[in-house]
Amino acid sequence: MSVEDFDLITVRTEAAGDAVVVHVSGELDLSTADVAEAELGQAVGSGAPAVIVDLDRVSFLGSTGLRVLLSTRDRANDSGVDLRLVGDQRVVLRPLQVSGLMPAFQVHASVPDAIAALTA
C-alpha cells in the first residue's frame, strides 16, 4: 500500500483481491494531476488485472483531472488492465457527462460494486 499526501490531494493505494484500488481524495486538477497520474500509472503497471479508481472523496474534478483519467484509461487498455471508476456524486459525474467522456469509462457507485462487476 502506498500513500501520497499533499495539501490538495491524497492518493492511497491498496490491494482488493486481484484488483488494485486507488483512493483519491481532494481536488483533481492542474495543481495535483502529477501526483494522481504517477500513482495511477504505478497501479496500472503493477501487474494486477484490474484497477479501480475510487473518486468518491474527490471535491473537484477539472479538465486536467479528466485528462489524467483518459490517459490512465488508455494506458490500462494498452496493458490489458480492466479499469473501473467509482463515484456517484455530481462533482465526478457532471464533468464526465458534460465532456462527453462518460461512455469511455465503466463507472460504479461503490468500490464493492466495482469489485462485484469484475467477477460477474
Automatic annotation (TrEMBL):
Matching InterPro entries: Anti-sigma_ant, STAS_dom, STAS_dom_sf
Record family assignment: Belongs to the anti-sigma-factor antagonist family.
Pfam family, one: STAS
Organism: Kutzneria kofuensis
Any one GO molecular-function label of the UniProt entry: anti-sigma factor antagonist activity
Domain annotation STAS: ranges: 9-118
Protein name, as recorded: Anti-sigma factor antagonist
